Amino acid sequence: MSNQFDVTHPPFDLLTKDEQDQLLTRLDIGYFSNDELIIEAGQSSNHVFVVMKGAVAEIDPRLEDNSDGGVIREYAQEDLFGAISIINGTSRYTFRTLEETIAWLIPKAVFEVLMESNPAFAAYFQNSLSEKARIIESRRSQQQGGSDMSAFMLAKVGKSVLREPVVLESGTSILEATRTMREQLSDCLLVRKGSQYGMVTRTDLLEGVVLNDHELNTDIAELASYNLLTVQKEDFLFNALVLMTRHKIQRVVVFDGVELAGLVELTDVLSFFSSQSHVIGLQIERAANIEELARAAKGTTALVSGLVSQGVKIRFAMDLLAALNSRIIAKAFEYIVPAEYHDKVCLLVMGSEGRGEQVLKTDQDNALILADDLDWPDCQKVMDKFTLTLLDFGYPLCKGNIMVSNPEWVKTETGWKEQLGKWSRKVDGTGLMNLAIYVDGAPVAGNQALFQRVRDNLYTQLGSDKVFYSYFAMPIRNFSTPLNFFGGLKRSNAIDIKKGGIFPIVHGVRTMALQNKIIETNTYKRLEKLAELKIIKNDFADNLAEALSVMSNLRLNQQLNAAEGQADDEDANLISAVDLNKLDRDLLREALHLVKEFKAVMTHRYHLER
Amino acid sequence: MSQFVINMIFVGASFAVYTWIAIWARAKSTREFYIAGGEVHPVMNGMATAADWLSAASFISVAGLISVGYVNSAFIMGWTGGYVLLATLLAPYLRRFGTYTVPDFVGKRYDSKTARVIAVVCLIMISLTYVIGQMTGAGVAFARFLEVDVTTGLLISAVVVFAYAVLGGMKGVTYTQAAQYVVLILAFLVPAVYLSLMLTGVFLPQLGFISSHAESGMPMLVKLNEVVRDLGFQDYTADVSNKWNMFLFTITLMVGTAGLPHVIIRFFTVPNIKDARRSAGWALVFIALFYTTAPVVASMGRLNLLEQIYPNGTDQASMVYDERPEWFRTWEETGLIEFEDKNNDGQIQFYNDGTLKTPNQDFAPIAEARGWEGNELSVNNDILVLALPEIGNMPGWVIGLIAAGGIAASLSTASGLLLAISSAVSHDLLKNTLMPDLSDKQEMLYARLAMVGAITIATYLGLNPPGFAAQTVALAFGMAASSIFPALMMGIFIRRINSKGAIAGMVAGAGSTIFYIFLYLGWFFIPETNTFPNSPEYYLFGTISPLSFGVIGAIINFTVAILVSNATEKPSEEIQEMVRRVRYP
Question: Where found, per UniProt (chain B) (predicted)?
Fold first, then answer.
C-alpha cells in the first residue's frame, strides 16, 4: 500500500500538474471502523472518497431487506465513490464500511473546483462507458507521445493528403478534357452531371478514343463511371486506405457531408505510409510471385503489434489486418488456382477472419464454392497446395479442419445450398457451429456471384423461422458472465474473457444480423447496421461496440505480452483480474455489465428460457 | 429423526440435485461454444417431456379422483389421449411454422392482430385457471410437509413458484427435467409397490391391481367393491350411468389437453422434427408408466384407508377417535381431514349417508340401525397420494420422497405456465399489438410484472375459490378445447380458413363454452347465480354436462370458422403457400 496518493490513475491523470498539486495539498485521510456509515442515502457528501485500504458497500436502502442486504456494489483499494452524490447534491444510496477502512478524502470544494476547471475530468464522472473509454483512449495515445504511426493512424482524410479535384461539367468534350488534365497535371477528373459525380481517368479517355472509337467531341459524361467509392472528410485516412486495398482501386472521392471535398490517391497514401516502418500493403500489391508474397505476409503480425502498442485503436488495426490478409489470401489463391477456373469458383474466408476481427494470425478458416457446371478433377490437389501455402505464410491450420483441403468445405453451389439447409433444419451442436462459421464468411477471391446466390438462398430457407434463431442464439447462455453477486469483477486470476464477454456479443450480434439479412460480417459494422435498422437502440449499439473493443484490447495486450504472441490461444483468453490496473478493471467491469444486459435482452427476445 | 426433518432433507436434497445437474450440464458444455441441443439421448428427452407433462394435478389429484370411482379414469384416458393427439396430429407440423407460442402462431397463420389478441386472451384465461390448480397442489404439499395450515402452505408455494419462475435457470435444462421425472416416478411407484406388496403380495403394482387380496383371497377389486358397497358407496367399478356424457367428457379432456398453451410450446420449439418424433415415443412410455400406476394407487389407497378406519371389517366397530393414529392427527392440522362426532359415540363412522354422489340406497336402514347419524369424516381427495405412505405405515423416507415429488411436479408445471402468460402479455399483447415502441428493457419489465400479476391473482383465487377448483379447471379445458385446439388444427390442415373465419370461430367456440359453463355453475362462478341447477335433467339433450361441453364448443368453432371463411375472401397466396409447405415439405 502506498502512502502517496496516486495521481497517475484515472481520472486524476486527466488533471494538469497544477491541478494535481492543488489536489494533493488539500487531501485528507479518514479512518472508518467496521460497519460505519459514511454517506447516508438522501444526504449530501462532504468528500469524495478514494479507498486506501478496506472495503465499502454501496447499499440501496429500498432493497435492504433482500438477502444481499441491498448491496449494489463493493468498493476496494483505489476505488472511488461519493463523487456522484456531490454532483447530484444528494446520494441515492447509503455507503457503509464492510471492514475497517482508511480512505483518502477529497474535500467537496476542491472537487467542485476541479470539475469546473477541467472539462475532461468532469466528463469522466458524467459519461457513459463509450465516452469514458474514448477519453481514456485519447489520453493514452497522448501519453505515448503521439508516435508517428498513431499520428498517421489517427490522421483525418481532410487534413492529410487531400487533393483538389479537377471538376468539369457534363457536355465537355474529350478533347477539352484531355487538355485540361494536361494543364492541371492530373491523372483523373470528375464530371458533374446534375447532382451526381462521375470519374474519368486517363485510361478511360485513352480506351474511349482508341478502343471504342469515340469522336474527340464526345461528351466525357459518357465515359465516366458513376459507381464511386467515397469516404467522408472526417473519416480516418486509414479507412480510405482500407477501402482502396479491399477494392483494388487507386483513388477514392472525399465528401464533406454531401459536398464534394476532394480526392485521395493511393500513391499519396502509400508515400505517406512509406515514411513509416511498414509498407506491407505495397509489398503485397507488388509481389510478383509466391515467395515475395510470403515475405509480405510474414510482416503483418509485426505491423499489428506495432500499431497496437503505439496506441492505435484496435478496430483500426483489425480493419487493416483484415484488408491485408484478404489481399494476401486472394493473391495466393490467384497464383495457385489456374486462371481458367477463377470465374467458376469463389473462395470464402470465415470465422474471425471473415468478420475482420482477428488481431494476430488466426487459424485458416476457409471454404470454396464451385460453380455447378465446373469440371475440375484436380481441385483437391490444388486446394491441398493452397492450404499448405497459407501455412507457409504463417496462417496455422484450422484445428477443426474447416479448410478447403477438407472436401467437406468444398462444395458446388447447389451442394452448399443443400448443406446449409440441412444444418439449419437439424439444429444440433455441430450444425449450428458450422452455420455460425459460415455466415461470417466473406468472399475474397473468385466469382462473388456464387457466394451471393448461396447467401440469398440461405436467407430464403431460414425465412421467418423464429425457433431456428432461438436455437442459434442459445450458445450465448452457455457461459456465465464473470461478475460476482454484487456486480463486481470476479476476483479470479483466470477470467475467460472470450467465453465470458467477447463470444456472447459476437454471437448475439451475429444472430440478429442473420435474422435481419445484414450482409456485413464485421461485428462493429453489424452493430451499426442493426442500429440503423432500429433493431437495437443507437446508444446500446455504441456501448456494445465499445465493450467489445475494451475486451479485445485486453486480450490482445495479453497475447502480445505473452512471448510475442507465442502463447497458446486458450491461455490468451484468460485475464487475471488481480493483475489488472484500476482503469482496466473498471473498464472490464463495465464492459461485462453490458454483456450481462445484452444477454438478458437476447434471452428475452429469442425466448432462450423455455 | 423426526418426520419433519426427513421431509426437509428429501425436498432439500432433490432441489440440490436439480441445481447440481443444472450446473453440471452447464459446466460440461463450457469447453465447447456450441452445445448439442439435439444430441441429448431421446430417452432423456422423453423423460424431460414427461416431467413437463405430469402436472401437480396428475401427481396429487388424479389418484384421489379415481379413488372415488373408476368413472374418473376419464381423466387418464383424456390426458393420455390428448398427448397422443398432440404428438401425432399437431406436433409434426407446429415446428415448421417457426413460431414460439400459440398467439405467435395464430397471428402469423391468420395474419391478423385481432386473432392474435383473442388467442392471448384465451391463453391467459386457460393458463391462469391452470396455475391455480398447480399452486393449490403445491400449497397442500407444503402445508403438510412444513406442518402448517393450507393457507400458509399456499402462500409459501406462491413465493417458491415465483422465485423458481424468475430465477429460471433450472427450466429448460433437459437433464434437470429428466431428474425431476425420476424423482416424480419414484415418489409415485415406491408407495404403490409397498401397497401392492402389503395388500396382494405382488411386487408390480400394475399386476397387483388384478391379483388377489392377500387377507381374504378374493380378487383385489372384488374385495374393494365389497367394502365400499358395505359402507353405502357405489361399487368402485360400477358402470357409468351416462355413457354419452362420459364420452364427451373424455374427448373434451383430450382435445383440451392438446390445446393447453404451455404444453404446445414444447412442440413449437423442438429443435428438429426427427428427434422430436423419437423422444415423443419415449415420452409416451414414461407418461404411460405413470398413468397406469394411478388407478392402482387409487384403488389400493382407498381400500387401505377403509381398512384402517374399520380395522376389524366394515360390520364391526370402527376406529375410536381418541385412539386415532399419528397421521390422522397431522393431517387434521392441515384441515384436509375433518371429523365431527355426530352421534357422540367417540368412534369414526365413514360412509355414504346419501350426501355424497351415487349412494347405495340399501345401506341407509343398516346405518340407522347401527346408530349412525350421518358421515362423520370428510377426507379431501387431494390427500390420498400425499397421505398414502403414512396411512400405510411406510417408512419415513417414502413420505419424504412423496413430498419431493409433489413439489417438483407443481413447480415445473407452474413455472411453464407463468412463462407462457408473461410472454403472451409482454410480447404478443403489448409489444406486437398495443405498444410497438416498447424497448427491450420495458418489455422485460412488463414480462416480470405479468408474472407477478398472474401469481397474485392465482394466489387470491386459490385462497378464495369462486367455485370448486375442479370447475375452474373445467373452464380451462373447455376453453382450450373450444378455442385454441380448433385454431391450430384448421391453421395446419385447412388452407381456406382466413382471419375472419378464425376469429369468428374462436369467439363462437369459446363464447358458447363459457356461456354453457356459467349457465350451470354460476355466472363468473359466483355461487347461487346459476340459471339452471347443475343436474342432468336440465342439461342440453339431458346428457351434456358443463364439464363436457368443450368438445361441442370445438365443433361450433370448426363449423363457424369454415362457414365464415368460405363466405369471405381467400387468405393471401403467401399464407396458402406457407400452409402447403408446412404439410408437404
Answer: Membrane
Taking CB atoms and an 8 Å cut-off, how many pairs form between chains A and B?
88
Mean pLDDT of B278-286: 85
- What residues of chain B have any CB closer than 8 angstroms to a CB in chain A? 26, 29-30, 32-39, 95, 98-100, 104, 108, 168, 171-172, 265, 268-269, 271-272, 419, 423, 439-441, 443-444, 447
Q: How far apart are CA A352 and CA A335, in angstroms?
A: 24
**Residue in the block written with cell 447532382:** A195
- The CB-based long-range contact list for A428-435 (8 Å cut-off, 24+ gap) reads A428/B36, A428/B37, A428/B38, A428/B39, A428/B271, A428/B272, A429/B32, A429/B34, A429/B35, A429/B36, A429/B37, A429/B38, A429/B39, A430/B34, A430/B36, A432/A471, A432/A472, A432/A475, A432/B34, A433/B33, A433/B34, A434/A402, A435/A472
Q: Give yes or no: residues B296 and B442 share one domain.
A: yes
Question: DSSP alpha helices (H): ranges in B111-208?
Answer: 113-145, 150-167, 174-200, 205-208
Question: Of B435, B465, B495, which residue constitutes the final position of a domain?
Answer: B465
CB–CB of B282/B45 below 8 Å? yes
d(CA A307, CA A16): 28
Q: A253 and A229 in contact (C-beta within 8 Å)?
A: yes
B371 with B401, same domain: the answer is no
Q: Which of B104, B272, B427 to mutate to test the interface with A (most CBs of A within 10 A)?
A: B272
Q: Does A425 touch chain B (CB under 8 A)?
A: yes
Give B226-230 contacts, CB < 8 A, sequence gap 24+: B227/B303, B227/B306, B227/B307, B227/B310, B227/B314, B228/B302, B228/B306, B229/B360, B229/B363, B230/B314, B230/B315, B230/B363
For residue B172, which residues of chain A lie inside 8 Å, CB to CB?
Answer: 608-610
Instruction: Tell me the per-residue pLDDT of A399-438, one tens digit each, with 9 for 90 and over.
Output: 888 888 888 899 999 999 999 988 888 777 788 888 988 9
Same domain as B367, residue B394: no
Cell 379432456 sits on residue: B253
Top pLDDT among A163 and A417 is at A417
Mean pLDDT for all residues in chain B: 81
Q: How confident is the model at residue A274 (pLDDT cuts 50, 70, 90)?
A: very low
Same domain for B97 and B128?
yes
**How high does pLDDT run on average in chain A?**
80
Return the minimum-mean-pLDDT range out of A419-428, B316-325, B495-504, B518-527.
Answer: B518-527
Query: Are B34 and A479 in contact (CB < 8 Å)?
Result: no
Residue B556 has pLDDT above 90, yes or no: yes
Max mean pLDDT among A273-287, A289-303, A376-390, B419-433 falls in: A376-390
Cβ atoms < 10 Å from Cβ of B295: 21
The reported pLDDT for the residue numbered A21 is: 86
Domains contained in chain A, CATH given: 12-125 (2.60.120.10), 157-271 (3.10.580.10), 278-463 (3.30.460.10), 475-605 (1.20.120)
Closest CA in chain B for residue A507: B33
The answer, yes or no, to whether residue B535 has pLDDT greater than 80, is no
Which of the residue ranges A170-179, B201-210, B467-476, B498-507 would you say has the lowest mean pLDDT?
Answer: B467-476
Q: In this prediction, does ipTM exceed 0.85? A: no
The answer to whether A447 and A35 are in contact (CB under 8 A) is no
Q: Is residue B506 part of a domain?
A: no
Note whether B181 and B318 are same-domain residues.
no
Determine contact, residues A38/A56, Cβ cutoff 8 Å.
yes
Q: Which of B410, B440, B465 is the last residue of a domain?
A: B465
For residue A144, pLDDT beyond 50: no
Question: Do the Cβ atoms of A479 and B30 come within 8 Å?
Answer: yes
- For residue B369, give its domain range: 305-379
pLDDT, mean of residues B69-87: 81
Whether B308 has a pLDDT exceeding 70, the answer reads yes
